[in-house]
């Protein structure tokens, strides 16, 4: 704040991957540091991590999150209304976090997030069989049975995000590209070959939300492999 942020009239708080999770976690606290007349919004890229079982049926990612919560005493910054009814580790997942956030937020994520497929669904500890190893490296190698499993992950994400439909000043762009963190590279963020939903690329949709050019900026893609604009992205 001392370096000039205190003089800001418009503020965008953002991060990708673990930084996207941190954006969701600290959004309201960050917003509270500014006077009410300052426009503060939060933008989380690839931070919507899911509480789902891995391919072996274990909640290995939940166990990982639980260790983070314990090690860093994350409970102190979790929403009290969630803690009143749920385990602190559950309250660390974005599914629960977004229910209590009051600051306007935009969620950018792939419903087939490559990092989550590789590390949440198919971690090394789950001992995935050889066909899954090929699938986790490249979604184009997945067979129809495996795609159905990935579709279930997508459906979980879409269902968890339904709460956003009741938040008029929120936005989202959920595509079906096998990728992770789409704000870091021009090819995915804003280029002639960027992924598109409703004939708009990510930068256009986020801009419409941020500057209030349109209401209810909430875009959700169809199931993989329906979106041909995903094909130009580099390997995850």
Record field, number of beta strands: 7
- Helical region count? 10
Output the strand order for the largest sheet: 1-2-3-4-7
Biggest β-sheet: count, sense, barrel? 5 strands, parallel
User: What's the shape?
Assistant: globular
Main location: secreted
Subcellular location: Secreted, Cell wall
Protein name: Pectin acetylesterase
InterPro entries: PAE/NOTUM
Molecular structure report:
It is found in: Secreted, Cell wall. Belongs to the pectinacetylesterase family. It is an enzyme of class 3 (hydrolase). There is one protein chain. The chain is of the alpha/beta class and 236 residues long. The chain is 36% helix and 14% strand. It is built from ten helices and seven strands. It has helices at residues 18-31, 60-71, 80-83, 88-91, 94-97, 114-121, 130-137, 144-160, 186-189, 202-210, and strands at residues 10-16, 39-45, 105-110, 171-175, 196-197, 200-201, 218-220. It has a five-stranded parallel beta sheet, with helices on both faces. Strands 5-6 form a two-stranded antiparallel ribbon. The protein is globular and about 55 Å long.
